[in-house]
Design goal:
With 504 residues, the chain is of the alpha/beta class. The protein contains 21 helices and 12 strands. An 8-stranded parallel β-sheet has the order 9-6-3-2-1-12-11-10. A 4-stranded antiparallel β-sheet has the order 5-4-7-8. The longest helix is centred in the middle third of the chain and has 27 residues, at 188-214.
């Protein structure tokens, strides 16, 4: 699927500014859309929107269908009379420094925010905001296919002090019907609370997306190929994964040693039983992408090469070194998806060790691939990431969420690599972030995307994620004063100059 020539910014909503410790779907998100519009940008790329678990990674969520309650804004709840500003401010006081930081303290945010959301739920159940109560009932009915399992899963996790489902009682772990009925009865109130939190998320995300679309902004979402083990997805569908009799993974996902890690990356996600997926007509995947594509316009499919062949690691291994390549579902999956969903507005994240078979799979379904400029300067003119080697059906990035910021990368790169950059650009690198933004903009790639950190010319302290590091990731936020008219004007000029935006 070919996309029109355009450019945009990579920014996850958690990185938005605001007073409550984490970005949310309130006024700052709308202001960011206004900045995109002023800057002539037509793309807003985000990371997965799901509820995050251990490590706070949006790539390890409790559900591939649900939204993250921590992104819910208090503003609509205040407007609906379910909360008031004074009680929010009072609840924030014990966490003052953590909430006012431009680095997210997820523990503080959860302890501060979730009790307030529970209070708003209690007030709605007591008769507050009756119009929301009607919308809530309709939401639960429309989304029961995934919401019921998710809400029960989260209620059970809470009842087990957050323990992984593999540590629950055997009858719950193996989803015995009688045990599930009893749990649904015993945990009726916590289950409805979880449904309410999902209602709030989608009730806020849907109008934000509409606001962006009305202003010509396309939302690019992100779907990890794999799901977290401790998730409603695996617990509710154990036969679709390689699990033993106790429900534990026998093999897990990862990648072999690469640019990011000498021992590879051991992700730990359970691997799919693609044979059983096929027997079911890929129904789970169809439902998953249908849900995700109802919340975004274009989908970046993470680790696309894993659909052709994936790195299988025995669950007992401590690193990803001792794995093996195993064939994935290939064209059969994408044919099934296309038959069910029509043309696939998908970007294939085809980074890493890419074989001719992976390229052929992407080409067979006319999916644009990705290029990252930070990967372009390590060797010679044949490097596939250099813009003169691009095909048009491509999305070019200065860097992704897994890369250092462009300034951080350039300042720590080997001398020969920095010299290659300077020679290729004909620039000395003093404004390297915008030098690469300009290079991305001028390329033939249909779409160009750059992290907001690069637009703001930030160094490595603003890095979003370091692959292989267990903590201190996903915490960066910008401050409201960092976006201004001058920045928008400069980006707009570049975008118009290289034909990615036409002045009205």
């Amino acid at each position: 699927m070919h996309f029109p020539r355009a450019s945009g910014i990579l920014l996850h909503p958690t990185s938005l500014p605001g007073p409550w410790g984490i970005g949310d779907l309130g006024s700052a998100a709308y202001q960011f859309v206004d900045f995109l519009t002023a800057a002539g940008q037509q793309l807003w790329q985000i990371l997965p929107l799901g509820p995050t678990g251990y490590g706070d990674s949006p790539y390890q969520c409790f559900s591939a269908f649900a939204g993250n309650p921590l992104l819910v804004s208090f503003e609509p709840l205040i407007n609906a009379g379910l909360l008031n500003y004074d009680e929010i401010a009072a609840a924030a006081q014990p966490y003052g420094a953590a909430l006012n930081s431009n680095q997210i303290d997820y523990g503080a945010v959860m302890h501060f925010k979730l009790p307030l959301l529970r209070e708003s739920f209690t007030r709605m159940r007591a008769g507050g905001a009756p119009q929301l109560a009607e919308q809530f009932a309709a939401f639960c009915s429309a989304n029961a296919g995934w919401l019921d399992d998710y809400a029960l899963f989260m209620a059970l996790k809470a009842a087990h002090d957050g323990a992984s489902w593999s540590n629950w009682e055997p009858e719950l772990r193996t989803r015995k019907a009688a045990a599930l009925r009893q749990a649904s009865k015993d945990l009726a109130e916590p289950i409805v609370l979880q449904q309410y939190l999902q209602f709030l998320f989608f009730a806020q995300w849907t109008p934000l997306k509409a606001y962006a679309n009305e202003r010509g902004i396309t939302i690019i979402g992100d779907a990890p190929i794999f799901v977290a083990y401790d998730s409603a997805d695996v617990w509710a569908n154990p036969k679709l994964f390689f699990l033993d009799a106790e429900g534990l993974p026998t093999v897990v996902a990862g990648v072999p040693p690469d640019y990011f890690s000498a021992t590879g990356q051991l992700w730990g996600n359970p691997l799919y039983r693609w044979d059983r997926m096929a027997d079911a007509g890929y129904a789970w995947w169809i439902a998953r992408l249908r849900q995700t594509l109802s919340t975004v316009d274009i989908l970046r499919l993470d680790h696309f090469r894993g659909f052709e062949a994936y790195w299988e690691v025995p669950a007992s291994e401590a690193t990803a070194i001792n794995g093996r390549w195993v064939k994935g579902p290939g064209a059969a999956l994408f044919s099934g998806l296309r038959d069910a969903l029509g043309d696939l507005p998908i970007i294939a994240e085809d980074l890493g060790l890419i074989t001719p078979e992976v390229d052929a799979l992407r080409a067979a379904f006319d999916l644009p691939g990705m290029k990252v400029l930070q990967f372009a300067f390590g060797d010679n003119a044949t490097n596939m990431y250099l813009p003169h080697n691009y095909e048009q059906s491509t999305v070019v990035y200065t860097g992704t969420h897994d890369n250092d910021t462009t300034i951080g990368w350039f300042h720590t790169a080997p001398q020969h690599e920095r010299e290659n950059v300077q020679r290729y650009l004909g620039r000395d690198g003093r404004d390297i972030a915008w030098d690469l933004i300009r290079l991305a903009q001028m390329s033939v790639a249909d779409m160009a995307v750059f992290p907001l950190q690069d637009v703001l010319r930030l160094d490595g302290h603003a890095r979003m994620n370091t692959p292989g590091r267990a903590d201190s990731n996903w915490t960066w936020r910008y401050t409201a004063d960092q976006l201004n008219d001058g920045l928008a004007f400069g980006l707009r000029v570049l975008t118009v100059t290289y034909g990615r935006f036409t002045e009205a």
